[in-house]
Specification:
Elements lengths: L7 H29 L18 E3 L3 E7 L5 E8 L5 E14 L2 E12 L1 H4 L6 H12 L6 H19 L8 H5 L2 H4 L7 E6 L5 E7 L4
Antiparallel strand pairs: 1-2, 2-3, 3-4, 4-5, 5-7, 6-7
């Protein structure tokens, strides 16, 4: 059998493409799981909610967390009503590029929520996010759940901090000191209407992969 020897530059390029393909696959799996979860529907209607090997139940619903060999962390948090309807869902992504003594962090958060199902129709958009962050930073016995919740809560706090005085959310930020060091401030945020009563939120800093 003939074996073709590739020039070093071509081999490096091919290896890079394989790495990017692997990253895209990992990204796609978490994104597909997130997309299948529909706010307002009962959890049983979506079949397999989240991959069992990387998921856990919490006092508030479900959460998923997985870090790839490439250093990308995907987190999905689902908040459920008492009758197991999906009241909110969030997908956080984090990765860092290291060079020399520096690092280049990236983070993004996407979320959909129904204020009625959450019981948050009487508060404004920012206070709504504060209430969700407060719930997500309540003590959890399972460290897996605690960390997954913190990844999302930190993103919610960063959104609120864009328009609020620096010290206004200090008590809440104190619960997330370690995580806020990994979730940069000063990103871009957006809030848009979704289908029906659903509200979509987003926060992005840097470039995730």
């Amino acid at each position: 059998m003939l074996r073709m020897t590739l020039p070093p530059s071509v081999a490096r390029a091919a290896a890079g493409l394989l790495v990017l393909a692997a990253a895209a696959t990992l990204c796609g799996c978490a994104q597909l799981d997130y997309d299948r979860l529909r706010v307002g529907r009962e959890l049983r209607e979506v079949g397999r909610a989240l991959p069992a090997d990387y998921a856990a139940r919490s006092d508030l619903g479900l959460c998923f967390q997985k870090t790839s060999a490439l250093g990308r962390t995907d987190v999905i948090v689902v908040l459920l009503t008492r009758d197991r309807r999906i009241a909110a869902k969030f997908h956080a992504v984090h990765n860092e590029r290291h060079y020399g003594l520096g690092r280049d962090p990236a983070y993004q958060l996407a979320g959909e929520l129904d204020p009625t199902l959450l019981g948050l129709t009487d508060v404004g958009p920012r206070d709504r996010l504060r209430a969700l962050a407060a719930d997500l930073t309540e003590p959890q016995a399972d460290p897996f759940v605690r960390e997954a919740h913190a990844w999302v809560a930190a993103g919610l706090v960063r959104i609120v901090q864009l328009d609020a005085p620096a010290d206004e959310d200090e008590p809440l930020a104190e619960r997330l000191v370690e995580m806020l060091e990994r979730v940069p401030a000063g990103g871009r945020a957006a809030t848009t209407p979704g289908p029906g009563p659903v509200v979509r939120i987003a926060y992005r800093f840097g470039r995730t992969w």
